[in-house]
Design brief:
- This protein is α+β, with helices and mostly antiparallel strands.
- The protein folds into three domains: about 70 residues; about 80 residues, Signal transduction histidine kinase, dimerisation/phosphotransfer (DHp) domain (Helix Hairpins, Orthogonal Bundle), CATH 1.10.287; about 140 residues, Heat Shock Protein 90.
- The protein has eight helices and seven strands, in the order ααααβααββαββαββ.
- Strands 2-4-5-7-6 form a five-stranded mixed beta sheet, with helices on one face. It has a two-stranded antiparallel ribbon with strand order 1-3.
Length: about 325
C-alpha cells in the first residue's frame, strides 16, 4: 500500500498536522500535548490497520482476476459488506462469469471448427479419390464407351464437390452474419411453387404426388431467394426418403401469433436416435441419402433462423417425416 503515491502524500500530511497539533498541545500543557499525541497515534494505527485490510481485499480480487485470465474455473471471491468494495466485488464476479462463459464458447467454437474442417476434408477426399482413380482408368482405357462413362462419372463427382463447396460457403456467410437479407412481403403459395419447380421432373419420374394446401392469401416477411432454398432442401430430403410412388403434403396456417408451413411425406421417417441430430452438419442419419453430404438440413435451419423463424423435424403419427416451420408475427 506504500507504493500508492496518494497514500504516501496522506501519511506526510497526517504526520505534519499531527506534529503541529502536538507542538501546540505541549505549548498549552503537558497533558494536552500527551492527549493530542496519543490521539494521533491511535487514529494513525487504526487508519493503517483499516487501510491494510482494504488493500488486502483488493489484492485478493486482483489475484482472482489473474486466475480468470489464466482460465481457472474454480473461483471464490469473499462476500463483502455494503460499500464501494462490495460494488467492485459484485462487478468482478459478473466479469468472471462473462469471461468464463466466453472461454467456454471459444473452446466449443474451436472444437466445432476442428471437427468441421475434419468433416470437410473427409467429404472432399472421397470424391477426389474417385476422380483420381477414374482419371487413371480413363487414361489407360482404349474402350471409347468406357472412357465416356468414366468422364461422365468424373463430371458428376465434380458437380457434387461444387455443390458441397457452394453450400459450405453459404453456411460460413450465415455463421459470420454477413448476408444482407431482403425484407419483403412474400406470398407463401408462390414461394412454395417456386421451391417445387426444380423437382417437377423428378416428381414425375418417381410418381410422387404433391398436395399443396397453402392459401394464396398467406404472406410472410423475408428474403424469397434464401427461404426458397431452405424449402427446397427440405423437399429434397422428403423426395429422397420416399423413393417412388409416395406423397408430399404441404400446408400453410396463419394466425395472430405466427405463420406456419408444414411439409409431410409418407416415407420412412426418422430413426429415434437421429431426431436430436437432424440439423447437425454432415449428419445423414440411418435413413439418410448415401449420396448427400448432410449439409442441406443444417443450411435450411440456418436460413430460417436468420429470418427469425424456427424449424422442427419429427415423425408424423401416421408415418413419414414432418417438418414444421414457423415465423412469429
Amino acid at each position: 500500500m506504500f507504493r500508492n503515491r496518494e497514500f504516501r502524500r496522506f501519511i506526510i500530511v497526517f504526520l505534519l498536522i499531527s506534529f503541529v497539533l502536538t507542538v501546540i498541545g505541549f505549548c498549552q500543557s503537558s497533558s494536552t500535548g500527551v492527549l493530542v499525541l496519543g490521539s494521533a497515534l491511535i487514529f494513525g494505527v487504526l487508519f493503517l490497520l483499516f487501510t491494510q485490510s482494504r488493500y488486502k481485499q483488493i489484492a485478493e480480487m486482483a489475484n482472482q482476476i489473474d486466475l480468470v485470465l489464466h482460465n481457472e474455473d474454480h473461483l471464490f471471491i469473499e462476500e463483502l459488506d455494503e460499500g464501494e468494495l462490495s460494488i467492485l466485488q459484485s462487478e468482478i464476479a459478473k466479469m468472471t462469469l462473462r469471461i468464463r462463459e466466453q472461454n467456454r464458447n471459444l473452446k466449443k467454437e474451436k472444437e466445432h471448427l476442428a471437427d468441421s474442417l475434419a468433416d470437410i476434408a473427409h467429404q472432399l477426399r472421397t470424391p477426389l479419390t474417385s476422380i483420381n482413380l477414374l482419371s487413371s482408368l480413363t487414361a489407360e482405357s482404349t474402350n471409347e464407351k468406357e472412357r465416356k462413362m468414366n468422364l461422365r462419372e468424373i463430371e458428376a463427382l465434380l458437380l457434387r464437390m461444387d455443390s458441397l463447396i457452394t453450400d459450405l460457403l453459404k453456411l460460413s456467410r450465415l455463421d459470420a452474419d454477413v448476408v444482407e437479407f431482403q425484407n419483403e412481403s412474400i406470398p407463401l403459395a408462390e414461394m412454395v411453387d417456386d421451391s417445387l419447380r426444380p423437382f417437377l421432373a423428378t416428381l414425375d419420374l418417381h410418381e410422387i404426388q404433391i398436395e399443396n394446401n397453402v392459401s394464396s392469401a398467406i404472406t410472410i416477411q423475408g428474403d424469397v431467394v434464401w427461404l426458397s432454398e431452405a424449402i427446397q432442401n427440405i423437399l429434397k430430403n422428403c423426395i429422397e426418403s420416399i423413393g417412388k410412388q409416395g406423397e408430399i403434403v404441404i400446408n400453410g396456417n396463419d394466425n395472430p401469433l405466427f405463420t406456419e408451413i408444414t411439409i409431410q411425406d409418407n416415407g420412412k421417417g426418422f430413426e429415434t436416435a437421429d431426431l436430436h441430430h437432424l440439423f447437425d452438419r454432415f449428419f445423414r442419419g440411418e435413413n439418410g441419402s448415401k449420396t448427400g453430404f448432410g449439409i442441406g438440413m443444417s443450411l435450411s435451419q440456418s436460413i430460417i433462423k436468420s429470418q427469425g423463424g424456427t424449424i422442427v423435424a419429427k415423425n408424423h403419427p401416421a408415418g413419414g417425416a414432418l417438418f414444421i416451420i414457423r415465423f412469429p408475427k
